[in-house]
């Protein structure tokens, strides 16, 4: 009964209209994190936790110049990794995770990033969101990575009342066609940065908020 109300025809119509706006604005969805393969994508996504994509892209060239694959990375001292990635924040934890997951990839997967949800999520430092990005952007498997930004926008636009990113992901997957998920999560991120930020948001100038009469949220 609750589910029927949440995913009503009017809500689905609203979701479709939002998708149309996003498609018009962002017909192309380049992957924000610079990488050359699924391993470097995995490491970059791990580094992006609580860090901007811009900062990650400034740091990874130096890291990957030293170690651009699991074998090279596993040979680096954890302290050396930590020194390079320090500007990304959480460097002790992230450096240990990068070192450990590189060794696991060598030992269990022949140095390749596995195209498997359970295997990815079992890697050190890799949660569901990181695994979703790799499956989506690396392997082209339909996924809907939901970070705090998408969680915020889905709530602002009335697409989800989820209390956490997991619940928001469930709602968005129910509202949008599966074949659109991989580009849609990027389109939402791009739109949020350009038109619908958390701070300094002008609802009247936001193409989505103004269309649906969404006012600036009070904190």
Describe this structure as you would to a colleague.
The protein has helices spanning 2-6, 9-25, 38-47, 53-66, 70-75, 78-85, 91-109, 117-121, 128-138, 148-156, 165-175, 181-194, 207-211. Residues 1-5 have low confidence and may be disordered. The longest helix is centred in the middle third of the chain and has 19 residues, at 91-109. It has 219 residues and is an all-alpha fold. 34% of the residues are buried.
Write the layout of secondary structure elements.
Layout: H1 2-6, H2 9-25, H3 38-47, H4 53-66, H5 70-75, H6 78-85, H7 91-109, H8 117-121, H9 128-138, H10 148-156, H11 165-175, H12 181-194, H13 207-211
Quick gist of this model?
This protein is mainly alpha-helical.
- Mean pLDDT metric: 94
Distance between the termini: 31 Å
Structural category is mainly alpha
Oligomer status: single chain
Distinct helical segment count: 13
Low-confidence stretches: 1-5
The name CATH uses for the topology of the largest domain is Endonuclease III, domain 1
Task: Please provide the count of β strands.
Answer: 0
CATH architecture of the largest domain: Orthogonal Bundle
Q: What are the defining features of this structure?
A:
Endonuclease Iii, domain 2, disordered N terminus, 13 helices, mainly alpha, Endonuclease III, domain 1, 2 domains, single chain, 219 residues, elongated
């Amino acid at each position: 009964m609750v589910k029927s109300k949440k995913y009503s025809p009017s809500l689905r119509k609203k979701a479709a209209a939002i998708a149309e706006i996003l498609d018009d604005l962002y017909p192309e969805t380049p992957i924000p994190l610079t990488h050359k393969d699924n391993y470097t994508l995995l490491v970059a996504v791990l580094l992006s936790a609580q860090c901007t994509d811009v900062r990650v892209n400034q740091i990874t060239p130096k890291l990957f110049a030293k170690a651009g694959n699991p074998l090279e990375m596993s040979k680096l001292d954890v302290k050396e990794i930590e020194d390079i990635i320090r500007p990304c924040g959480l460097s002790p934890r992230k450096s240990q995770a990068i070192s450990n997951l590189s060794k696991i990839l060598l030992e269990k997967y022949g140095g390749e990033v596995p195209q498997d949800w359970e295997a990815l999520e079992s890697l050190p430092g890799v949660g569901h969101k990181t695994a979703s990005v790799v499956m989506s952007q690396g392997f082209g498997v339909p996924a809907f990575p939901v970070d705090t930004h998408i969680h915020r926008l889905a709530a602002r636009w009335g697409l989800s009342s989820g209390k956490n990113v997991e619940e928001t992901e469930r709602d968005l997957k129910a509202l949008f066609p599966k074949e659109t998920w991989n580009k849609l999560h990027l389109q939402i991120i791009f739109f949020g940065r350009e038109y619908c930020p958390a701070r300094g948001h002008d609802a009247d100038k936001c193409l989505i908020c103004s269309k649906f009469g969404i006012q600036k949220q009070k904190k």
